[in-house]
């Protein structure tokens, strides 16, 4: 179940796929319903990455197996069966998977997201900055997960294509 859709139903908010940006994610829910529904959406999306990945880690999966579980969690968020294969952009779920794999890498990427979002004044700007930094930071902090970070970077860049193609930098 998509967290944004479930939270919007619980708070009697409009369907995020039909309103705002049309994206079922925390940023759109923030626009539609405020901070609490957005925070709950974010927690739900992050947990979709954390829970399967941390479970696989508990079961002693090797890095390749953990990477495949993380990638499956993100792909399940992007292409949910019950919503016609039209899901969110995958940032929070990818972050959740990374959080379960490497806390130093996740914290570093969160800082990249914060810096990018502040400079570009867009959540999607922060997401793209973090996605681009993920392979580089992974090389130093979690080299066994570099292939996963390359894949996630490519997926997130593709999913945010409409965002980065339409950007105009804020005036100075």
Automatic annotation (TrEMBL):
Annotated transmembrane regions: 58-79, 91-116, 136-158
Pfam families named among the record's database cross-references: G3P_acyltransf
Signal peptide limits: none
Domain of life where this protein originates: Bacteria
Keywords: Cell membrane, Lipid biosynthesis, Lipid metabolism, Membrane, Phospholipid biosynthesis, Phospholipid metabolism, Transferase, Transmembrane, Transmembrane helix
Tagged with keyword Membrane: yes
NCBIfam families, A to Z: glycerol-3-phosphate 1-O-acyltransferase PlsY
PANTHER family: GLYCEROL-3-PHOSPHATE ACYLTRANSFERASE-RELATED, INNER MEMBRANE PROTEIN YGIH
Name of the featured protein: Uncharacterized protein
């Amino acid at each position: 179940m998509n967290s944004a859709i479930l939270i919007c139903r619980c708070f009697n908010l409009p369907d995020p796929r039909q309103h705002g940006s049309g994206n079922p994610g925390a940023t759109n829910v923030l626009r539609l319903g405020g901070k609490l529904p957005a925070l709950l959406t974010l927690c739900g999306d992050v947990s979709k990455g954390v829970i399967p990945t941390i479970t696989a880690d508990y079961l002693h999966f090797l890095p390749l197996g953990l990477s495949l579980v993380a990638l499956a969690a993100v792909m399940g968020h992007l292409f949910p069966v019950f919503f016609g294969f039209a899901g969110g952009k995958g940032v929070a779920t990818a972050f959740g998977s990374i959080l379960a794999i490497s806390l130093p890498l996740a914290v570093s990427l969160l800082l990249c997201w914060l810096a990018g979002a502040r400079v570009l004044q867009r959540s999607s700007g922060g997401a793209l900055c973090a996605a681009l930094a993920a392979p580089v930071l992974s090389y130093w902090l979690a080299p066994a997960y570099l292939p996963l970070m390359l894949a996630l970077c490519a997926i997130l860049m593709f999913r945010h294509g409409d965002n980065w193609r339409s950007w105009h930098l804020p005036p100075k």
